[in-house]
Design goal:
Layout lengths: L2 E6 L4 E6 L2 E11 L2 E9 L8 H15 L3 E4 L2 H9 L9 H4 L8
Length: 104
Amino acid sequence: MKTEVVDRPEAHRYQILADGEVAGYVEYQLSPGEIMFIHTEIDEAYEGKGIGSVLVRHVLDDARERGLAVLPLCPFVRGWISRHEDYLDLVPAEARQKYNLPAA
């Protein structure tokens, strides 16, 4: 299965395409210097296939590349960050407790 993640700024979401079909998305709110990830949804047909992880890794890598702080309101994104602590630095230290993330 070939995947591609695309930013749809007009819809405030990143979409993941699997073999050209929309398989899921992450909704976001962009503010100066930060991005808040609000909600993640993966189509039932793609659940359990790692699509969500591919999507979240991409959006976090994109936030890092753009120099944006990450506010993980979405439980899926927050959980992913807690399991991949090399992305923890994207969440401002003062915001980590609010999202139940480790201090460092």
